TrEMBL record:
Gene3D superfamilies: 1.10.1660.10, Antibiotic binding domain of TipA-like multidrug resistance regulators. This is MerR family transcriptional regulator. Residues 2-71 form the HTH merR-type domain. The keyword Cell division does not apply. PROSITE patterns: HTH_MERR_2. The keyword Transcription applies. Pfam families: MerR_1, TipAS. InterPro entries: DNA-bd_dom_put_sf, MerR-type_HTH_dom, MerR_fam, TipA-like_antibiotic-bd, TipAS_dom. PANTHER family: HTH-TYPE TRANSCRIPTIONAL ACTIVATOR MTA, REDOX-CYCLING DRUG-SENSING TRANSCRIPTIONAL ACTIVATOR SOXR.
Length: 247
């Protein structure tokens, strides 16, 4: 059954503006345009959109996604299998990072001691057991760009990134009395988004979810609010605004 652009937007949790952009660049062209000018999306369009969002989540650019999907040799079922394998590997790494966060909280409280190696468990993005298959299917250039976003920074960059993050916390704390949607707040939260994407790969939606964790998990709240009371909530709100504006 054909769906209107607004229905697809709500179904896939992406903006109408994004769907219009995909149409304009030929990435997702609706199968039908009504005489009144309404875009109508078929089941095949929805299947392609699902693939687009999977590839986007893995860090591929829109241009690379279009090239992959338009390749006559593209196999949708095979791609879904590969998506699953990569996401399972990513979930395993994230589980390790969450465990490292929990241990670090205990370390900061003085309840346990952590070695330097333990402090960075889960931050090794240098190996993906499915990368070779991905390169064979989608090409070196596409995988290299996606892979670069998941690379752990070299040791000599870690302190620099830590200092950047602390500076952003302080600057955000200083303006936490302003509206989260203000230009000043959004400029600073954009810097936070950019720094986080040096450590991992965050889509705007994932960035928004992370912001919600800052207030839902008291451990995050406690650590962030060390820079200023209410900072975690302010960042959560500002990150949500940023994500909604950059879908």
């Amino acid at each position: 059954m054909a769906m209107k652009v607004k229905e697809v937007s709500e179904l896939a949790s992406i903006s109408v503006r994004t769907l219009h952009h995909y149409d304009e660049i030929g990435l997702l062209v609706p199968d039908e345009i009504t005489p009144a000018g309404y875009r109508m999306y078929s089941d095949a369009n929805l299947e392609r959109l699902q693939q687009i969002l999977f590839f986007k989540e893995l860090g591929f650019s829109l241009k690379e996604i279009k090239n992959i999907l338009d390749d006559p040799a593209f196999d949708a079922e095979e791609a879904l299998h590969m998506h699953k394998l990569i996401l399972l590997e990513k979930r395993q790494r994230l589980d390790q990072m969450i465990a490292t966060i929990d241990k670090t909280v205990l370390h900061l409280r003085g309840e346990i001691e952590m070695t330097p190696r333990e402090q960075f468990q889960g931050f090794d993005f240098s190996h993906n057991p499915y990368e070779h298959e991905a390169r064979q299917r989608w090409g070196d250039h596409a995988v290299n760009e996606a892979h670069q976003k998941l690379k752990d920074p070299p040791a000599d960059k870690q302190k620099e990134l830590s200092d950047q993050m602390n500076d952003i916390f302080r600057r955000l704390s200083a303006i936490s009395h302003t509206a989260p949607e203000s230009a000043e707040a959004q400029a600073e939260i954009k810097q936070w988004y950019m720094v986080l994407n040096q450590l991992g790969s965050y889509s705007p939606e994932a960035f928004k979810v992370l912001g919600q964790m800052y207030v839902d998990d008291e451990r995050f709240t406690r650590n962030i609010d060390q820079f200023g009371e209410g900072l975690a909530q302010f960042m959560c709100n500002a990150m949500a605004v940023f994500a909604d504006q950059n879908q």
